[in-house]
Specification:
globular, about 15% strand, Rossmann fold, about 350 residues, alpha/beta, four-stranded parallel sheet, binds fe (ii) ion, binds ligand L6N33NVT, five-stranded mixed sheet, single chain
Length: about 350
């Protein structure tokens, strides 16, 4: 008898807020060749990660984590556990959780699934959008680990759901109470990526950053274009929520210095929006399914401070979907559709490129 299961996937956090634990986490994360994509054994990469990024970043990151840490641990991991428990209560299939970096680890989750006799697995990345540095890298890691631990496991994966009507509806429903508040502007702040990753993801090399308005001009390149996908999420949200066209915009946060990242930058907008008379700001962060360091500290703490120093008056971050019932409904529907018909899932290798 076949046994199916679901594996929820996210990025992961350090074990604690201590500087050594944060260094260990950053080394694993930034050692990923799909995140810092310089040749893995190269001098340049070692210099960049171990000589520049980690020494300069670890203390600052540890301090930032301290400001959002909960008694149970990292908000990202704790909330993801709640999501797992709530989804488990809605489906007879085993539901596991794994993080790309740190714990709960992918090998541990696979071992637990194997012990339960699982032979068919649905990967559910908690990322609505494809990016080499998020969606692709976690799927590749599961495939690599499964090849060692459970070579006969049949692995399927949900498609990036950035334009899925039910996902958009969940996002709009959870944002509704905030949209009803008086505000001057809604900023869609997405995690950024280096511009280079966009062009690298376009195997035709003839669309992304080449065609004018590439992200709103239909192209097969969009299957692996993060910027086109976040643009689509935004437009679908705007249409579904009936937003005034003059009252929203897109920006990108969390960049690392060293090369151009996709623009405009969120922190620049926190300076500019008050000067343009946008004094009451709502910020939504749909690249993140779960609130984490990048939303709770970078937006809610740092961003609010920066916006107010620049003359802004009211700043509200709309919480991520987290473990809200609308999100659990979405997960449950997708799992049920997969279980019954295989719908909306496809072979895990389909969007994964050999690097
Ligand atoms: C939403 C998808 C994400 C993409 C795409 C992504 C790309 C990306 N990130 C970094 C560097 C860092 N990101 C960090 C934290 C972080 N990033 C994501 C998601 C995406 N990253 C999440 C959910 C988190 C939060 C983790 C948590 O524990 O709460 C960090 C660590 C913290 C810090 O020092 O700021 C780094 C570093 C790169 C370089 C990149 C694309 C190339
Ligand atoms: Fe990140
Ligand atoms: Fe584009």
């Amino acid at each position: 008898m076949s046994q199916s299961a679901v594996l929820l996937l996210n990025l992961g956090s350090p074990e604690s807020t201590s500087v050594p634990d944060v260094k260990r986490y950053l080394r694993e994360f930034l050692g990923d060749e799909r995140v810092i994509d310089k040749p893995a054994a190269g001098f340049l990469r070692r210099l960049l990660v171990n000589g520049i990024i980690i020494p300069f970043r670890a203390k600052k990151s540890a301090h930032a984590y301290e400001s959002v840490w909960t008694p149970e641990g990292s908000p990202l991991v704790v909330t993801s556990r709640h999501t797992q428990t709530k989804l488990q209560a809605r489906t007879p299939l085993p539901v596991e959780l794994a993080m790309n970096y740190g714990n709960p680890s992918i090998p541990d989750a696979l071992h637990r699934l194997v012990r339960q006799g699982v032979d068919r697995l649905l990967l559910f990345p908690q990322y609505p959008h494809y990016a080499m540095s998020s969606w692709e890298t976690v799927v590749v890691k599961v495939q690599r680990e499964a090849a060692k631990i459970a070579p006969d496991l049949k692995i399927e994966c949900v498609q990036p759901y950035f334009a899925d009507a039910d996902y958009i509806s969940a996002l709009v429903t959870s944002a509704r109470p905030y949209l009803a508040q008086p505000h001057d502007h809604l900023l869609f702040s997405y995690h950024g990526i280096p511009v280079r990753h966009l062009t690298k993801g376009d195997s035709s090399h003839a669309h992304c950053q080449v065609v004018p308005d590439c992200c709103t001009t239909c192209s097969p390149a969009h299957a692996t274009c993060y910027k086109a996908q976040v643009t689509r999420t935004t437009h679908e949200f705007v249409r579904a929520a009936g937003l005034d066209p003059a009252k929203w915009s897109i920006s990108f946060q969390s960049r690392i210095a060293g090369e151009p990242w996709i623009a405009p930058y969120t922190d620049h907008l926190f300076e500019e929006l008050p000067k343009a008379g946008k004094k009451r700001l709502l910020v939504i962060t749909p690249a993140f399914v779960t609130d984490c360091l990048e939303t709770l500290e970078e937006i809610r703490v740092e961003g609010a401070e920066q916006y107010k120093e620049a003359g802004g008056q009211e700043f509200t971050h709309i919480p991520c979907l987290n473990d809200q019932p609308v999100w659990i409904d979405f997960l449950e529907q997708r799992v049920r559709a997969w279980q019954q018909t295989g719908a909306l899932a496809f072979s895990a290798g389909d969007l994964v490129k050999t690097r």
